[in-house]
Amino acid sequence: RGREPVVTVVLDPNWASGALVDDVRRGLGSQPRTLPPKWLYDDVGSELFDEITRLPEYYPTERERSILREHADDIVAACDATTFVELGSGTSDKTRLLLDAFTSRGRLARFVPVDVSDATLRQAAKELSERYPSIRVEAVVGDFTLHLGHLPRGDRRLVAFLGGTIGNLYVEERAAFLGALADSLDPGDWLLLGTDLVKSPERIIAAYDDSRGVTAAFVSNCLRVLNRELGADFDLDAFTYVPFWDPRMERMDLRLRAEMPQRVAIPGAGITFDLFQGEEIRVEISTKFRPDRLRDELAAVGFGVTRVWTDRDGDFALTLARR
Ligand code: AVJ
C-alpha cells in the first residue's frame, strides 16, 4: 500500500470565476474577439478532448505515447532527477511510462503532478500513490502559467510538459512561460517538453477537422461554458467551426464564426456586444514546431537541449533540456 498523497491547493477558490470574467471582458469585449483555450476544459470539454485523442485523424497523442513506450528508459537514464514534476498532468496517463522507467531504476523519490482540475488531480494522485508505493506523490492544484513559484525545491528536478500543450500559447505567452519556468528552476534541473512538429498541412488540418465533428463540438463547448457559468445567451446553432492552417505562423487557428448578425449578452461579465455576420471568435491556436527553432527558443531563456526523441515518422518530438 502506498502512502496517502499530499494535495496542496494554491488556487484561490474564486480563481476560476474571477479569471473567467477577466478573460471574457478582455477577449470578447474587443475586436478581434478571442477566448483563451483553458475554458474549453470543463467536465464535458475534458470528456470531448479525451474522445479527440482516440480519433483516427488525431495523431499527436498516439505518437507521443509511442515515443515514451520506446524511449522512457533512455529519457530517465539521460537525466539525474529525483523529483519529477508534471505540468498540466490531468490523469498522468502517458506519464506512467516514465514513472515505470524511474521506478525500475529505483531513483525517484517524489512525483508532483500539477493541474487546475481539483477532482481529476485528486483521483490521479490516489491511483498513482497506490501504484507506486516507493514514490511520494505531492500533487499541486494550480495553474501552470501562474503558480510555478509553488514547485517543490531541494532535489534535482525534472519538469515535464507533455501533449503539445505549449503549442496552445501565443508567441509572447510562450516566451513568458518558458522564461518563468527557467527562472523557477535551478541550474542543473531538467525540462522534458512535448511538441507536435511541422508536417504536411493536409494531415494537420485533418487532425483538427475530424469527420465525426468531435473537434467542432469540443471548440463550440466554450460557448456552452459561458452560457452556464456567466448566464450568456449564445445560440450554439448560429456558429460554425472554422479550423484553418496559418502557414506563416505554422499553426492551426481554431475559430467560431457567427453565421448571422446577433447581439450577445453575458450578464455574469457585465457585457453586451454585437457580432456581425461572418465575425469570428478565436478560441485556440495549436502551433507546430521545428526542432532547430525550438532549440533556439529554449536557449534564449537558458535551457540547453540535451537530446530530442521523435517517433518513427517524425510527427512529434520529446525534447530534453537542461537549465
Ligand atoms: C491540448 C495541445 C493537446 O492543440 O492538439 C485538440 C488541444 N484542440 N484538438 C492540441 C486540441 C483541438 C490539443 N492539446
Automatic annotation (TrEMBL):
Q: Keyword annotations for this protein?
A: Aminoacyl-tRNA synthetase, Ligase, Methyltransferase, Transferase
The UniProt entry, under InterPro entries, shows: EgtD, EgtD_Methyltrsf_superfamily, MeTrfase_dom, MeTrfase_EgtD-like, SAM-dependent_MTases_sf
- Using the record's annotation, list all stretches that form the Histidine-specific methyltransferase SAM-dependent domain: 22-322
Origin: domain of life: Bacteria
Q: What Pfam families is this protein classified in?
A: Methyltransf_33 (PF10017)
Q: Which GO terms describe its molecular function?
A: aminoacyl-tRNA ligase activity; methyltransferase activity
What SUPFAM superfamilies does the entry give?
Answer: S-adenosyl-L-methionine-dependent methyltransferases
> GO terms for biological process?
methylation
Spell out the protein name for this chain: Histidyl-tRNA synthetase
Organism lineage string: Bacteria, Bacillati, Actinomycetota, Actinomycetes, Micrococcales
